[in-house]
Design goal:
eight-stranded antiparallel beta barrel; 47% strand; single chain; mainly beta; 11 strands; three-stranded antiparallel sheet; Lipocalin
């Protein structure tokens, strides 16, 4: 350990915060045993194997991030994803987020958004795998006073095995500090997400 370095993560083996490790996955037969220093999360697959994910690290918020409205949504969330069922996501405030183009009109050119709330798949599903962006709240929408805060955004969809991945328009409604809704316009669907409280 370096006493001058901040460490944070879900692994018992410390990694510096500045090492922005993504989630790592590999397939195991049920007879394989985990390494003694890893904390494993499993998701069962249909082919009698279990895909095992072990997150290495999650960055701590930068100094000053707590001043931004969206920073209070940082953390683990769970939401209903249509026929995929419940999915776990990690939301975080991102600065200078490179917003991808969408196929349905919100953004035809790549844009750098100063502050965006970005949700990444923690485990993933057959369409959009772990660590990939699920959605991002990018542009505030003016609403009447007393209404929930809303953002225009992007959401990622794909065919099975992450084929033909693309971004579509979304609307994110910040219901409270512990609940939000994501409307997927092209899919004509809404996902309700709630904060994971441990």
């Amino acid at each position: 350990f370096d006493s001058n370095q901040q460490y944070f993560g879900l692994s018992q083996e410390a990694l510096p915060v500045n090492e922005r490790s993504s989630l790592i996955a590999h397939d195991h037969d049920f007879i394989d045993s985990p390494k003694e220093h890893d904390i494993y999360f499993t998701r069962h697959c249909s082919n009698n194997l279990s895909t095992v994910y072990h997150p290495l690290s999650i960055p701590q918020p930068k100094t000053g991030d707590n001043d931004h409205l969206l920073s209070r949504f940082n953390g683990l969330w769970v939401g209903q994803y249509d026929y995929h069922g419940l999915e776990l996501l990690y939301l975080e405030l991102c600065h200078d987020f490179i917003c991808p183009t969408t196929v349905d009109g919100i953004s035809k050119d790549v844009e750098i958004v100063p502050h965006a709330l970005v949700a990444r798949k923690f485990f993933g599903d057959p369409n959009v795998p772990h660590s990939k962006i699920s959605f991002a709240a990018t542009h505030p929408i003016e609403v009447d006073s007393g209404s929930s805060i809303c953002y225009e955004g992007i959401g990622q969809i794909a065919n099975t095995d992450y084929i033909d991945a693309q971004f579509i328009r979304t609307k994110i409604i910040l219901i409270s500090d512990d609940a939000l809704k994501v409307t997927w316009f092209t899919l004509n669907n809404t996902s309700l997400l709630k904060r994971c409280l441990f």
